Amino acid sequence: MKQKTIAVLLVLCLLAGFTGCGKESGQTSVPAASTGEPAETSGGEYDFPDVRFFDATLLDGSALTASELYDGKDITVINCWATWCPPCLDEMDELAAFAKTLPDNVQLVTYCVDGTNHADECASILEEAGFEGKTIVSANGDFTTFIEQMQYVPTTIFVDSAGGQTCDSLIGSPDDLEAAYKERINAALKAAGKKGL
Length: 197
What we know:
Layout: H1 2-15, E1 39-41, E2 55-58, E3 63-65, H2 66-70, E4 75-81, H3 86-99, E5 106-112, H4 119-129, E6 135-139, H5 142-149, E7 155-160, E8 169-171, H6 177-191
Parallel strand pairs: 4-5, 5-6
Antiparallel strand pairs: 1-8, 2-3, 2-6, 4-7, 7-8
C-alpha cells in the first residue's frame, strides 16, 4: 500500500512539473523542484509577500539590511537554493555566468536555505560555479515570511528597489535559465520605466 501511495504522489508531482512535492505539516526542509518546465506563478500559494524589511547575514559572516541590499539597484533577483537540491546545483554554473552579464542596476543574489549549517559546502559550491555575488544564509522580518511560504527550491523572486514583487516568481529550474530570467527582468524594468537588458 505504501509503495502504491508513493507512486501516486510521484505521478501527481510529475504532472505538476516537480520531482519533489510540497511541504507537509511540520516539515522544515524545502523539497527540490524539477528541472523541467517551471511553474510560473502570479497567484495562489506562490503569491509571495514583499521582502521590504529584514536584516540578513551573508555567507561571509557580514550583516546586511534590506535597504543596503537593494541600494542603487532597480531590480534584485533572489534565487533560493539548497546544498542538497540536485536541480539547484545543476543550474548554479549557468546562474553564476548569467549574474556576471547583468548591468549595474540589476543584481542577482542567492539565499542558501541550509547555508547556516552547511557554510563550507555552500561556499565550495558557489566557488566551483564561479558565483561572485552575495549569498544570504539567514534573515528575519519579511524575508522569514517569504521563506515560510516557499514550497520548493529552487525558487526565484524578482523585487524592485524597495523589495516589492515586480513580476511572476520562478519555481523550479527552467530549461533556458537566461531567457526565463531576462523575460522577467525586462518586464520589471519596463514597468519601472527603465531600459531593458
